[in-house]
Specification:
The chain is α+β, with helices and mostly antiparallel strands and 187 residues long. It contains 3 helices and 11 strands; from the N terminus they run αβαββαββββββββ. Strands 1, 2, 3, 4, 5, 6, 9 and 11 form an 8-stranded antiparallel beta sheet that branches. The radius of gyration is 16 Å and the shape is globular. The two termini are 28 Å apart.
Length: 187
């Protein structure tokens, strides 16, 4: 499903350099086709979305994405960009509509360094669906919503993330993401 040119050696070399120079953060646009994104949204719906509604953490819908074949491709690409062996951890489909959000507390609890891979699957652009990563009180990455993009962000236990609140007053929004946690693999 990942477009083949992203695995070309010259492209990977450039992506590795960009990832490292940006502090182990990368936003890679148009990683999959519109058709693949639609297929993954349909798969998430078929798996059954559940409500996540904890006011101090977040409000959105999700489905466990274990076993989704694309996850192995995401792991392989992240491994090639990050330059170290990675093992796949938990993965979820996420869906945000107006009124939904994910607060910092929703992303806490990491015990070790990980690489977070978030693939956008949204059917349309939403100009206020930003994802922010913080270390302490400082935002070190504010990633805009880019259709079918992959965000790779190295996270430590001190790194928190939140999905910006999707305000009803800003118009329609239907933001879909596939998020996987990748752990350094033992050699």
């Amino acid at each position: 499903m990942i477009l083949a040119h992203f695995f070309a050696p010259a492209v990977l070399a450039g992506l590795r350099g960009t990832y490292r120079s940006a502090g182990n953060v990368l936003l890679l646009p148009e990683l999959v086709s519109e058709e693949s994104a639609a297929e993954l949204r349909a798969l998430a719906l078929a798996m059954g979305l559940r409500d996540h509604d904890l006011p101090d953490r977040g409000h959105y819908r999700f489905a466990d994405a274990a076993g989704v074949p694309l996850l192995e491709e995401l792991r392989a690409l992240a491994e090639a960009i990050g330059g170290e062996p990675l093992a796949l951890g938990p993965a979820r489909f996420l869906r945000f509509v107006p009124g939904d959000y994910s607060l910092l507390q929703d992303s806490s609890g990491l015990a070790a360094r990980t690489l977070e891979a978030t693939l956008d699957l949204s059917p349309a652009l939403c100009d206020h669906a930003e994802v922010n990563y913080l270390r302490g009180a400082e935002t070190f990455a504010a990633l805009p919503h880019v259709l079918r993009s992959l965000a790779l962000v190295e996270r430590t236990p001190e790194t928190l993330r939140h999905e910006r609140y999707l305000a009803h007053t800003r118009g329609p929004a239907d933001v879909w993401r596939l998020r996987a946690t990748l752990h350094p693999a033992p050699h």
